[in-house]
Design goal:
Layout: E1 5-15, E2 21-31, E3 35-39, H1 46-53, E4 61-66, E5 69-70, H2 76-81, E6 82-85, H3 97-107, H4 112-125, H5 141-153, E7 159-163, H6 171-183, E8 191-195, H7 199-205, E9 208-213, E10 216-221, H8 223-229, E11 234-240, H9 246-254, E12 261-265, E13 268-273, H10 276-289, E14 294-300, H11 304-312
Parallel strand pairs: 3-8, 3-9, 6-7, 7-8
Antiparallel strand pairs: 1-2, 1-4, 4-5, 9-10, 11-13, 11-14, 12-13
Helix pairs in contact: 3-4, 3-5
Length: about 325
Amino acid sequence: MSNDFLISTHDLVKEFPDGVRAVDGLTIKIKRGEVFGFLGPNGAGKTTSIKMMVGLLKPTSGKTIIDGETIEAGSEVVKEKIGVCPQEITLWDRLTVYENLRLIGDLYETPKEKLNRQIDSLLRELQLEDKRKTRATSLSGGMKRRLNLAMALVHDPEIVVLDEPSPGLDPQSRLVLWDYINTIPKMGDKTVILTTHFMEEADRLCKRVAIIDHGKLLVDDSPEKLKNNLGEGDVVELTLEEMEGSEKLAKDLEKMETVSKVHVVGNKIWLNSLNAVKHLPEIFHQVEIGNKNIVDVKLRKNTLEDVFISLTGRGLRE
């Protein structure tokens, strides 16, 4: 296996006693030093998959390889490599910010000097320095979430799991968090596994994303490639000088291999085309053949949410 891949799963299956197969043959590779997004509707098997991928849950069958070694769920070596920031904020309310971080570091037996450096660095970079002596119960929601992230990182793990890191945050706190997440892979080739319900978050942070549904992997690629190659396609809005005969033009446009859907709306023609920018000359040529004049063109790029809905047939929160 290439050293570029830190985590590799092979045909992971997880069946529960009630007969539910939560994960069905998951084979995936995650590169060292990347932010990898894991997306799927509620109940799709994301959390179960990630727990098996990082050695926190034993699969029914299949295996996970981390850093070249087949791992057993719950092994001490795996625990040291992983930091988990859970969806639910988990803090010791009566302890100060510093004490929360110190406690986690001590539990992982992090050497004192290294732990002090880690705490100082995390407090500075996550903008919590002036809250060092503040009890966790007194922090705002955004500060609590940033402290939770710091607690996942304080023992300097190789793999960081962020499970829904930014729900309920105000825009400013979310940007602080996103900026910091972008820096994590640069801290000694750390690898981040991110689950999120925010498509913008996955698009902005993730180098690659996997979309799963009903326990099966549907796609695994960069957000840009997925947007260019999957979904209903980019939306092109053509405003015509006059609409007489536009129905025929719409049918001719729909016959093009590069166009998936066409709608006539008022004095406009809306069409869907994958990677539409590349195909605009062909679309304009077809309009010219139809003896129509375009007075305005608007383009909305295909979004990751468009891709997601196209693949799963449902929204992320369904």
